[in-house]
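Researcher: Please generate the 3D structure of the following complex. Treat every line as part of one assembly.
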Amino acid sequence: MQLRKALLGLVALASVVSSAAVIPRDGGGGKLPRPVSPKKPRREPEDTKYFRENTDLTGHYDERFFSEIVDYDARLDTLKHMVRAWLLTTAKEGIETWIAHGTLLGWWWNGQILPWDWDLDVQMSADTLTMIGNEYNMTRHKYVSEDGLVEREYLLDVNPWIWQRVRGDGMNVIDARWVDVRNGLYIDITGIAETQPDSMPDILNCKNYHRYHVNDIWPLRDTTFEGVPAKIPYSFDEILITEYRAKALVVTEYEGHRWNTKSKTWDLANDVPAGAEAEQLKNHVREPERYYSVESGGFFYNVFRLLHWW
Amino acid sequence: MAQKTTHGLLPLLPPPTTSQSPTAAPAASRSSRAFSKIKFGLLAGVLAISTFWAYSCSVGGCNHGEAPVFGGDEWEDDYAGVNEGISGRLGYTLVKDIPAESIPGRGKRGVKKGEGDDKRLIIVGDIHGMFDEFQSLLDKVSYDSESDYLVLAGDIISKGPDSLAVLDFARKIGAHCVRGNHEDRILLHYHDIQRRKRKHHLALSVERKLAKSLSKKQAEWLDACPLVVRAEKVPGLGQYYIVHAGLVHGIGLRRQDPVAIMTMRTLNHHLVPSPKQNGMHWAKYWNKMERRETHGHTTVVYGHYAAEGLDIRRYTKGLDSGCIRGRRLSAYILKANKGGRVEEDIVSVKCREYLD
Ligand SMILES: [Mn+2]
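Model: Done. Output below.
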């Protein structure tokens, strides 16, 4: 009798726990989506690290071309022309590439760069990456803006270690770069590939453990980004929700910016916390790929966990 | 499994531990067998709270104070819906209207008592290339292209045996359509094939083969399918939307995610739609909200959700009854009856087993 009651109690408890366990992952905590994982400052350069970065600015500049820290306007100007140049050049050369991560999130909102972003992310298939490594490595590309007022030059630099797909040391998460040679700001170019075609066919990985089903990427969608033709993954909304949570699609104040519903732009807002202040407020950085991968374990696991704790 | 449902319904659930407040502990300390059980319950309650707290700290951090700033809060608020313009940026045709004279009960002279009118609106769910079944369904409803306005609710092609035959037949009999997720994929492949400079690195998939086999005319017809077909002022019933997958209630068509219109099954508690099944069925939310309206109702007819089967509710009509998997192909029919009122009817036919 007592045992039965105890079991009943456990059942009730376990269901409470298993439902409670879901809450903090989506509803609780006051955490904001933060495009982090692909380009956090990495530890000191080790042997296999090909790209040298200017580390005190969390690696937003390529060290070889770094001269000084650019201001807000110069950075946005650099990034906008840089991504246009990339998209126009790849389209002209027939190189298949699409925008990803924070850059894709910016597209979702208004087809533009998120103004607090420091670098841009694009992806391509590993085969395409190998091809550009063979045919375009260390090539320089001139760019003139549509109005003819801006002239820039970019370096397409492919990391020679791209074949080292399985990440051992947390290094080399970037496969290639499109670098503005004036100041060292760059676009991350990442290749995705089937790493385990036998056990996980159709599952694609980038070096940073972002995982995609081949049908989530292809067929690519045609759209525009920063005013020029661009491609995005087929399941862009699912990918964004997996990487940034649904909140990233509804939060209208972020990193010192507020969404202007009239102009459809992110405007600078002094009263919206940014940087360290925002960090403190929101307490910690979230890790996108953990969101769906951490299972609360289900009913029996929770029963087990309770028993175990007793 | 239990979490699947709790996840979507979270905001509707009471806080899990309020009935087991630890402050009630002293009241239960009198000794009797009954109370010892209560004591056990309380202990369990405290444990539950602490487990919850520990778990939420480990998963989500202990910062339960500062809430983020949202466009809206929970279910009730119109979520920011800021993706306005995505339809345009992806080149979709958002909505087409059914001409008034084709809407049942809206003929030039209106519907007189004892007459009805001969106009019917017929909507057929996911055909998926099941040509024979599509034909026998049209036979069963005695389809007449003169008086009937036929709308195919997406996923007309792909998966099944005779996609192109269904397509040609639909064009021939003057059917209308909305764009389903399968049309979307095939058309994206189609345009990619037309434009491609370099050879595709992937092996020719089933989808790509189908896309390659489309003629220009067939592709153009499919490309003209909007995301939404709208029938306004259906007498006595209000407005009708026909979509492939669903809509989020309370958000204007222009602010809906166009891809979600073709893929959604559920909503999370920020009203963000998802093709996954773990959340609140969008149709459930639609009906809940629509029942609160006093006038000007909108009913949505859709397909896509084969797992739910034929799903007829007051303000939503789910038509994917799983034909491709050997279940049924269904048609939803609106017709003005002799009394002058527009009534609904559902007709379906048995399908052969094509996929398992
Ligand atoms: Mn579908």
